[in-house]
Amino acid sequence: MKAIVVNPPNKGVEVREIEYDVKSIGEKQALIKTIANGICGTDRGIVSGLLKFSRPPAGKNSLVLGHENLGQIVETGSKVLRFKKGDYVVSIVRRGCGKCSNCLSGRQDFCETGEFVEAGIRGLDGFMREMFIDDEEYLIKIPSEIVDVAILLEPLSNVVKAYNELMQTQRRMIWWCKDGSYDCRNAVIIGSGPIGLLFSLIFSSQNFNVTILNKRDPSPIELEIARQMGANFINIKKESISTNIDVLIDTSGHPSAFIPLLNKLNKNSALILFGTTGGEASEITAELVTFLVENNVLLFGSVNASKKDFEDGVNFLTVWKYRYPSLLNKMVTKVVKPEEAPDVLYAKPKGEIKTVISWT
């Protein structure tokens, strides 16, 4: 079977044949034919050897890459109840430790032991291969109406989780506007990659006033996507933000991107840290700490997603597909064959929002 394989923590990636028994399907498992994989910064971090937490499954020295996935069921085990041959599915990424209360309650995204595994990232082979077997409990059913955009479900599930965390924690007060909506609230998203655009989309669809920031002018596709969702796009090197901020989301991982904006946060506002990177240091002064304290500013980091977040993501994609007919498809800016994957894993294509590997 053809697969895209890495050897973490070493640098490198190759497309090669692997041994995989597609006949050993358990009673509650399904055999799935891979249709597509999305490529993200995590994949490139593993390929470059920079993400040192990546590891192969126990007893192996290589890892099948890929956590963003879309597949179609080829065969099901005798006790699979919710799926049938021909169903389109997405597999969730993280599998719990089986020990802590969160993992035992389906919230492996809040694992307390750190002993979880993640497909294509650490301790579990991923989905960049022709076929794979997975347990029914880890599968999300995809309606046929959104199959063409379902590759966005992961990372969208992570965005949904962060949004849900925000709305839950902001119940600490009355945060909505006088008319019961959020159209008096300003959301500012740093970064215009797929995560940044999905954050922008979820906030704009909830009627926040959305501003997308980058250190460059938008590409024509980014500008069109922002226009369709009603968001403002600012090149922060050329233009400053004129409004105060109720929720600031950083998808860059660079402190220098969000720290200068903290003094524009409104009272009772929130900062969500989503991006991860390394090699940069920025100073946080005592005066800034005082500002955050005196203004009740909420700060939290968010990573991964639960099964419920994936299911909510399906609902968002379904609504957005009809509300913004062409917007989601524009986010896929390049499609490559598996043999071409190493090229786009080593180097991000110019103008990329989302690059997808097609196995069909």
UniProtKB/TrEMBL annotation:
Required cofactors, per record? Zn(2+)
Q: Where does NADP(+) bind?
A: 192-195, 214-216, 274-276, 302-304, 348
Entry keyword annotation includes tRNA processing: no
Question: Which parts of the sequence belong to the Glucose dehydrogenase C-terminal domain?
Answer: 148-357
GO biological process, alphabetically ordered: non-phosphorylated glucose catabolic process; protein tetramerization
Q: Which residues form the signal peptide?
A: none
Amino acids binding substrate: 42, 118, 154, 158, 304
Protein name as catalogued: Glucose 1-dehydrogenase
Organism lineage reads as: Archaea, Thermoproteota, Thermoprotei, Sulfolobales, Sulfolobaceae
Underlying gene: gdh
